[in-house]
Design the sequence.
């Protein structure tokens, strides 16, 4: 009986592609960071464009371009190394770093261009592979060659990242042999060693833009952060080592090219390294291998950035592209990336793609450096990386990226920045909620603190006045306060500090207070709230007034309401006096039970020509007129007819000095004050000044029936001026 032999081929293929374990494999420093970084850096630009760079710039010019480009990546690599030893980064590399520092909106606005750059990089390397292939086989169809290379890279990345990494080991050996073949060139040195070139084909910065993609591979390992065993260790070590090794290689190639070739040869012959090599086939193999490995490295990174973007619901169809296989492969993201690459292959060219990629990477690098610089400058205890760098490194990295962008192409730089801002605004409207915290709130708090320190050095002046209300709320659950009116005397630049006093600061009370004030917050008004533990509301409110006056951002108006309960009059009186002692203005609202604020148009402000207590009333009037878009009536009264002309002149002068709207009307009423109130023009609200000595509670309670409107009673603090 014949015995069926087991098929040993399938297990063998699985071991090659996936390793011993097929699920959950993670990479170390060499496999996950150093190898993809080096192979992405030593790519198409090195073989097919670097000779042109040296031919235009000369040896020292090429070294200058290399060092400037590498200085950007060194600063970025150091910044990235520093921050990765401070936070646990997830998938997506730079996207994850920026998101966890500046929020999903900032991360997404950078992550989307980064994904595009990585995807275009893959197309760039495939085009480079095709150019190299056509130099050997000029009769072949470039579209077919590019498509075959595209299918091969897509297939490898689709199977497994580990399979791709193992193939890259072989490619690294091939590239090493090709470089050895070039450095062992048998060609005799030229007689004219050009130190500084004439830049015949392009200026310095355009040559730089063509070269810069040759150093952008430092993100290849970071983009694999979700697949690394120890990203905090592997990313710094692998990234900085790859930068140093490739820096030496590029300077060495520039020197050998300058020694064995004339500038004319370098500018006109793309395959100059092939012609000068000890063994030409090694260079051809190197070109093929390097371009494919660079494409493969970018192809591994780009879908993982897309998957990370989708995982946080940053992009459309996020549920589709966030999916992963059991082996942690973002298959759907790989398919979309492959489609985008094929479109780029059809419509793109090597030099155009190189410039586009340069801009996108510079934006990403600049933002990453900026994130580290911000965290270093904030001096917060949570930023304590084990890999520390001087602050000037991250600053130079961020500033250098911005400067180089505008030197290369100011128009495209401006468009790129506008694009990122637009993406940030669009993502901000989605109100995404990350599962982690970020530094944005702390960042603006640090800015505010430093600004307050500076502002404290300058004298306080009425010209900077804005309505900042202190709002005591006796019971947030039943308070029927006039939120819309409060909004209209604070919007757009004012603020509100609302508080209540309870014997026990229960979480339910805090939540009720926040819920009560939420409509004002939704209007864009700055809202702060607190629940104070005290068994007496009056005593607790006095403590709040005293405490807040020591702060840099302190309220300047105490806002109170007056109801029918006369038992609270004494408390109101004490709070008004307490406010005066601590230089707070006072507003007391007596709301009409039926008409409330009418049509919210006309405002009557009652003035006395001898009273100094009208500045706050005038400022509140202007706030209401701004938001109601209504008419102001300046009203005064006298018992003597002979005072009429003088009072009209008084109102006219006051209106002119306070720069009131041109439609403001003046009304001088003759007779007893209470009688004249009924003869006043109809207003949706009437504003009265409060005497400095006592509060006329009977008048305050009855006047809104005389006016047929709600009324407010205002007392200055001495820090307001309607004339500045």
Sequence:
């Amino acid at each position: 009986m014949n015995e069926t032999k087991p098929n040993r081929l399938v297990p063998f293929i699985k071991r090659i592609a996936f390793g011993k374990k097929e699920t959950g494999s993670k990479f170390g420093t060499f496999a996950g960071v150093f190898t993809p970084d080096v192979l992405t850096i030593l790519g198409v630009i090195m073989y097919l464009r670097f000779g042109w760079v040296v031919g235009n710039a000369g040896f020292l010019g090429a070294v200058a371009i290399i060092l400037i480009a590498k200085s950007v990546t060194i600063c970025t690599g150091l910044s990235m190394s520093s921050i990765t030893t401070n936070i646990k980064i997830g998938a997506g590399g730079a996207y994850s770093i920026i998101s966890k520092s500046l929020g999903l909106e900032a991360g997404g606005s950078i992550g989307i261009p980064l994904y595009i750059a990585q995807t275009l990089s893959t197309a760039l390397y495939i085009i480079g592979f095709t150019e190299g292939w056509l130099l050997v086989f000029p009769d072949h169809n470039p579209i077919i060659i590019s498509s075959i290379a595209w299918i091969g890279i897509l297939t490898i990345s689709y199977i497994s990242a580990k399979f791709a990494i193992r193939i890259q080991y072989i490619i690294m050996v091939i590239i090493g042999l090709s470089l050895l073949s070039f450095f062992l060139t048998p060609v005799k040195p030229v007689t004219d060693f050009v130190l500084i070139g004439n830049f015949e084909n392009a200026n310095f910065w355009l040559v730089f833009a063509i070269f810069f993609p040759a150093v952008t591979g430092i993100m290849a390992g970071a983009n694999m952060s979700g697949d690394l065993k120890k990203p905090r260790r592997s990313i710094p070590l692998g990234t900085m080592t790859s930068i140093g090794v490739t820096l030496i290689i590029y300077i060495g190639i520039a020197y050998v090219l300058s020694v064995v070739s004339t500038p004319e040869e370098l500018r006109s012959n793309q395959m100059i390294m092939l012609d000068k090599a000890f063994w030409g086939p090694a260079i051809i193999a190197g070109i093929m291998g390097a371009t494919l490995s660079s494409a493969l490295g970018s192809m591994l990174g780009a879908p993982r950035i897309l998957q990370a973007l989708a995982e946080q619901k940053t992009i459309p169809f996020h549920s589709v592209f966030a999916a992963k296989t059991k082996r942690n492969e973002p298959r759907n993201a790989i398919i979309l990336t492959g489609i985008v690459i094929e479109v780029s292959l059809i419509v793109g060219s090597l030099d155009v793609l190189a410039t586009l990629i340069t801009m996108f990477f510079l934006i990403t690098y600049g933002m990453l450096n900026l994130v580290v610089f911000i965290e270093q400058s904030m001096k917060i205890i949570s930023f304590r990386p084990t890999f520390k760098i001087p602050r000037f490194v991250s600053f130079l990295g961020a500033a250098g990226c911005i400067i180089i962008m505008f030197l290369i192409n100011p128009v495209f730089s401006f468009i790129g920045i506008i694009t990122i801002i637009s993406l940030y605004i669009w993502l901000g409207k989605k109100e995404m909620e990350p599962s982690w915290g970020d530094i944005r709130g702390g960042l603006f708090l640090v800015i505010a603190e430093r600004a307050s320190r500076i502002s404290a050095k300058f004298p306080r002046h009425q010209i900077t006045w804005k309505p900042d209300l202190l709002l005591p709320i006796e019971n947030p659950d039943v308070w029927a306060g006039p939120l819309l009116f409060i909004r209209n005397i604070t919007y757009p630049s004012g603020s509100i500090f609302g508080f209540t006093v309870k014997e026990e600061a229960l979480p339910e009370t805090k939540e009720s207070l926040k819920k009560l004030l939420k409509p004002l917050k939704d209007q864009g008004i700055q809202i702060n709230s607190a629940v104070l533990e005290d068994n007496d509301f009056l005593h607790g409110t006095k403590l709040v007034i005293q405490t807040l006056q020591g702060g840099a951002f302190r309220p300047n108006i105490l806002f109170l309401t007056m109801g029918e309960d006369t038992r609270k009059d004494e408390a109101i009186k004490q709070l008004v006096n307490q406010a005066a002692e601590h230089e707070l203005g006072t507003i007391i609202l007596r709301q009409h039970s039926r008409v409330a604020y009418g049509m919210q148009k006309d405002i009557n402000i009652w003035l006395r020509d001898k009273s100094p207590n009208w500045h706050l009333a005038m400022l509140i009037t202007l706030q209401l007129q701004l938001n109601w878009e209504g008419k102001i009536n300046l009203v005064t009264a006298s018992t003597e007819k002979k005072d009429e002309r003088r009072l009209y002149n008084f109102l006219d002068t006051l209106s002119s000095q306070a720069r009131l709207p041109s439609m403001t009307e003046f009304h001088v009423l003759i007779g007893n004050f209470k009688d004249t109130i009924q003869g006043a023009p109809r207003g949706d609200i009437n504003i009265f000044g409060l005497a400095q000595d006592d509060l006329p509670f009977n008048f305050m309670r009855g006047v809104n029936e005389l006016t047929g409107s709600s009324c407010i009673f205002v007392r200055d603090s001495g820090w307001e001026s309607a004339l500045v």
